[in-house]
UniProtKB/TrEMBL annotation:
The keyword Transmembrane helix applies. It is found in: Membrane. Belongs to the NIPA family. It is a multi-pass membrane protein. Its main location: membrane. InterPro entries: EmrE-like, Mg_trans_NIPA. This is NIPA like domain containing 2. GO terms for cellular component: membrane. The keyword Protein transport does not apply. Pfam families: Mg_trans_NIPA. The lineage of its organism: Eukaryota, Metazoa, Chordata, Craniata, Vertebrata.
């Protein structure tokens, strides 16, 4: 009997491929495939849990933004207003925002990026509804049309997102991290990022498209790392501990660093341009960047039918159009300080007004 040879790199690669093949499960063809039917629910229960977490998280963020806005309005009506960061109500909004972002973070551990990222439109439309109901903002015809389109787009996104279930283990992330698709994608992204950064820093070109493209390029790394970290935590709780692998901490560092630099460039965009313009453009750029990242890194559309991809993209288009209609030409109540100021503590001079844009503000570190 021949002696067993020691496992080499080829055996390790084969084992990783075997694990990947077991991680992917596709819905069998049938009338329920690609629609919200009973068969679809049976195959996608874990996806629906992630969708529910994302929707609830975005709704909580909408509530938090309106609470923070309301606290600013209350302080502005006082004869000697206090700094907003001393308001209990404002800190309550911050706490709710943190809870909402935790819901978004957890959602990536249960559903594909291409399903969770576009659901950021729920935050914008939800904020508009809440502001009309509780803050007595004007309800325009374009708001109703935008909300309808956004809800229709969300339905199509959830219905026709990839029917792929993938267990995110450390070995899976390592395999993708050194894959040729991701390496080529990273080289192109670094080149584009450096070119845009050169025009931004050296040439002083601070056009909104350049700033938000820099944000979107960083966002692609954010969603990749967020799904990896969230997925490995989920895998650790349901199967085998993954937090001892170095790739977990590499992804964690990438997640934090990309979020910090996103905040920097997005804050610059909000200082130079109206939020009514920044919000829809940022949502579109972020979502497109996240979808591309999910397709390339996690191969989330692998094996998807053309019609499914087309309807999914049409759902994205409807959600983009809905966000644009909700935010366009909205009356602005200028708040000189943002809902959450990531920079220095603001001036506390008595009488300083705390006015800014209305409810169209979005959290700058969205994992949407």
């Amino acid at each position: 009997m021949a002696a067993l040879a020691p496992a080499g790199p080829r055996d390790a690669a084969s084992a990783a491929l075997d694990e990947l093949s077991l991680n992917f499960t596709y819905g069998a063809p049938g009338p329920g495939n690609g629609s919200l039917s009973g068969a679809w629910y049976g195959r996608n229960q874990i996806h629906l849990f992630g969708v529910l977490l994302a929707i609830l998280g975005n709704l909580v963020i909408s509530i938090s933004l309106n609470i923070q806005k309301y606290s600013h309005l209350q302080l502005a009506q006082q004869e000697h207003p206090r700094p907003y960061f001393k308001s209990v109500l404002w800190w309550g909004g911050v706490l709710l925002m943190a809870m909402g972002e935790m819901g978004n973070f957890a959602a990536y551990g249960f559903a594909p990026i291409t399903l969770i990222a576009p659901l950021g439109c729920v935050s914008v439309t939800g904020s508009a509804i809440i502001s009309v109901t509780f803050l007595k903002d004007n309800l325009r015809a374009s708001d109703l049309l935008g909300m309808t389109l956004a809800f229709a787009g969300t339905y199509l996104l959830v219905s026709f997102a990839p029917n792929i279930t993938q267990a995110i283990s450390a070995r899976t992330v390592q395999y993708y991290f050194v894959g040729w698709q991701f390496l080529i994608y990273m080289i192109l992204e670094i080149l584009i990022f450096c070119i845009l950064l050169y025009f931004y820093k050296r040439k002083g070109v601070k056009h909104m498209v350049i700033l938000l493209t820099l944000v979107a390029l960083l966002a692609s790394l954010t969603v990749i790392s967020v799904k990896a970290v969230s997925g490995m935590i989920t895998f650790s709780m349901t199967d085998k501990m993954q937090l001892t692998y170095p790739i977990f901490y590499i992804m964690f560092v990438i997640m934090i660093a990309s979020c910090v630099f996103q905040v920097k460039f997005l804050n610059q965009a909000t200082k130079l341009y109206n939020m009514t313009t920044v919000v829809p453009v940022n949502h579109i750029f972020f979502t497109i960047s996240a979808i591309i990242a999910g397709i390339i890194f996690y191969q989330e559309f692998l094996g998807a039918a053309f019609l499914t991809v087309f309807i999914y993209l049409f759902g994205c288009f409807l959600s983009f159009l809905g966000v644009f209609l909700v935010t366009r030409n909205r009356e602005k109540e200028h708040l000189q300080q943002s809902y959450i100021d990531f920079g220095n503590i603001p001036d506390t001079t008595p009488g300083r007004k705390a006015w800014r844009e209305t409810n169209v503000g979005q959290n700058t570190t969205r994992f949407q």
